[in-house]
Amino acid sequence: MPAWLARFVWRCRGKRRVKLHLEGALPTVEGILLGRIRDHYVIMQPRLHHAAAQGAAPAELVNTLEVPRERVVFVEVLAA
Predict the structure, then answer these.
(1) Can you count the helices (H) and strands (E) in the chain?
(2) Contacts 24+ apart (CB under 8 A), 21-28
(3) What DSSP string runs through 32-61?
(4) pTM value?
(5) What is the predicted pLDDT for the residue at 49?
(6) Greatest alpha-carbon span in the chain
(7) Which of 11, 13, 68, 78 fits 17 for a cystine, CB–CB 3.0-4.6 Å?
(8) Is the pLDDT at 1 greater than 60, yes or no?
(9) Residue 19, Cα to own-chain centre: how many angstroms?
(10) For position 15, what pLDDT does the model report?
């Protein structure tokens, strides 16, 4: 296993793959939940799913994303 892949697997161990459903017309965010810091959800390898574009591929973002807890309606756990 390459060293970069081993570091990635080590960082993701015990983390959950989640989908954050945001309020209003904001897109849904899917990724690996690293935890909560200062009332923000920290997501690694985030992907944006737009409700209007059903057939479109999700847009991938770079590295990590912090989502304010106030904007999240509920958290759907996809894999533990």
Answers:
(1) 1, 6
(2) 21/72, 21/73, 21/74, 21/75, 21/76, 22/67, 22/71, 22/72, 22/73, 23/71, 23/72, 23/73, 25/51, 26/71, 27/51
(3) EEEEEETTEEEEEEEEEE-SS-SSSPPEE-
(4) 0.70
(5) 81
(6) 43
(7) 78
(8) no
(9) 6
(10) 73
